[in-house]
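Q: I'm building a small set of examples for a reading group on sequence design. Run inverse folding on the following structure and report the sequence directly after it, with nothing in between.
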């Protein structure tokens, strides 16, 4: 089948690759219809690695996907041919301790698409366990179905924070994950949701599209803004989604006493944290890694129209022009989410 492979840093190729398409008794064969481009895909494209994960041989990119079931295994009862679905890209060991405890996302042996040495899904078809495949309701199109994956990260982050209706929330980092987290937080009852970033165009988009509080941290003190908004108290919860040291420090500084910081992104450098100040305010720090058991909730948010993620899709490329996607993504950093459409024949830059 046709697939987009990362040959080496900065070089992709749309080529024919043979995959094992044997459908197990508990599996489904899915014809891919849409794939979202993630920041991790871009990191592999730019550098050929993310931390200890090194692309040492050609690898198919992509892990945010939706499609149509075209074959089912003998034990599969919940799907039929023609069902529209999205797929959770991480497959754990079913008998691992983490899986048995319901925290399969932290199984050290999880097999995750587009993470070396595992191929991703910018390809025509994929065999996938039915247990990690989910039906798309009529209200959710293939594009949004592909974005259930990053939305699940936001859902997991908000669930980890144990938000209370009426909470004031700060999100540091206005990328796709930061925006999605802010939207899920607002849908969970948070009355004041703030996003900080250094990209003014992105902040303008967020404010105009979603009506959230926005702050350019290069021009204004986020801490002072939050304190003024909360009568010098601070926010109840902060979500760090920038992956930067300044963003991480801001996420901690802006919290009120007994506040919680949830770290979604990992900063590239150590954070110089004042532990004494955290002690005095009894600050809680939590971290998240992907998600577990969050896809049904994410899909329900889209079905009910509690959140609208369609505006985040800023560019669409046909699969036939997949080689153009990553050079475009690197050159035009104003995009938010790029979708690769396996049905469209011509490029459609939104």
């Amino acid at each position: 089948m046709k697939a987009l492979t990362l040959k080496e840093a900065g070089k992709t190729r749309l080529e024919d690759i043979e995959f094992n398409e044997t459908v197990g008794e508990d599996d489904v064969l899915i014809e891919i219809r849409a794939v979202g481009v993630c920041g991790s895909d871009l990191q592999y494209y730019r550098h050929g690695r993310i931390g200890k994960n090194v692309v040492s041989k050609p690898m198919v990119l992509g892990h945010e996907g939706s499609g149509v079931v075209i074959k089912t295994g003998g034990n599969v009862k919940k799907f039929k041919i023609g069902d529209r679905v999205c797929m959770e890209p991480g497959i754990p060991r079913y008998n691992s301790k983490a899986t048995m405890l319901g925290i399969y996302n932290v199984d050290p042996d999880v097999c995750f698409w587009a993470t070396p040495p595992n191929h991703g899904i910018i390809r025509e078809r994929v065999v996938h366990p039915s247990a990690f495949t989910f039906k798309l309701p009529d209200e959710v199109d293939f594009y949004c179905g592909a974005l259930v994956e990053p939305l699940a990260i936001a859902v997991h982050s908000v669930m980890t924070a144990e938000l209370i209706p009426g909470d004031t929330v700060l999100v540091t980092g206005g990328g796709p994950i930061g925006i999605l987290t802010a939207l899920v937080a607002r849908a969970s009852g948070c009355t004041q949701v703030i996003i900080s970033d250094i990209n003014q165009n992105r902040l303008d988009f967020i404010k105009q599209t979603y009506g959230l509080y926005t702050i350019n941290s290069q021009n204004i003190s986020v801490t002072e803004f939050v304190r003024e908004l909360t009568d010098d108290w601070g926010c109840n919860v902060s979500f760090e989604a920038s992956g930067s040291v300044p963003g991480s420090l801001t996420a901690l500084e802006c919290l009120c006493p007994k506040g919680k910081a949830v770290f979604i992104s990992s900063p590239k450098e150590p954070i110089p944290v004042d532990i004494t100040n955290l002690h005095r305010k009894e600050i809680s720090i939590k971290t998240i890694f992907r998600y577990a058991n969050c896809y049904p909730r994410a899909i329900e948010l889209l079905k009910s129209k509690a959140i609208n993620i369609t505006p985040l899709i800023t560019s669409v490329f046909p699969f036939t022009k997949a080689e153009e996607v990553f050079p475009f993504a690197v050159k035009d950093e104003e995009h938010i989410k790029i979708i690769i459409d396996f049905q469209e024949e011509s490029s459609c830059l939104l």
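The longest strand covers residues 27-36.
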